[in-house]
Design brief:
Helices cover 40% and strands 18% of the residues. It has a seven-stranded mixed beta sheet with strand order 4-5-3-2-1-6-7, sandwiched between helices. The chain starts with a strand and ends with a helix. The chain has eight helices and seven strands. The longest helix is centred in the last third of the chain and has 25 residues. The protein has one domain: Nucleotidyltransferase, domain 5 (2-Layer Sandwich).
Length: 237
Amino acid sequence: MSNKLVIDIETVGEDFDQMDETTQHVLTSWIRKSSNSDEEYEADLERLKQDLVFSPLTGKIVAIGVLDYHQDKGVVYYQAPGDNAKEITEGNITLKPMEEKEMLKSFWQGALKYEEFITFSGRTFDIPYLNLRSAIHGIRPTKDLMRGRYLYQQQPGAIHIDLFDQFAYYGSARRMGAMHTFCRAFNIASPKDNGVKGEDVGALFKDKRYLDIARYNVDDIVATGKLYEVWDKYLRF
């Protein structure tokens, strides 16, 4: 039986207004070309500011949640700048405040003990984000979790099971929805059930509600683990 680690991250975008003029110009050049009015430009600019969170070049990781699938114990590393937060344990999850660089170091060091890594849409978001933010901080990932999209192509000891890919059969099945839709279908508690959504993380971070972000991340890794259980039991061959 291989060791399995469930992974999920939370991110926030940079403040566009604090960026240098050259970066602002590069990011908005397409808007200026495509907008037909000042109102359209302002609407597109607002969407761009909101979308900075999705790129590791204009965003940062504020929480990394990991759950040992077999032991049902986990850790959430989370940023809490200026909060003097202390490490606490809630149920089977330990919440550890630390800066992004230390979060990434801890994550990759812990990853060495595992052979299978479980995400939901991790191939298109979590893992590239982790890899690039690590490189920005001068940290080399300890596992190649982007090698080969199909499971049979992947390297033993670094199997990345992206559940969205698996449930959607690598894009063959259409209109599959997001994690909440899958949780609803399989009668699993959704991370959104507690009133927090992924798009709320930026505002929560700005308001210094760091523990709320960490707890939302806990809900994400727990739901991902339960979805993996469904896939592993009924759909894995």
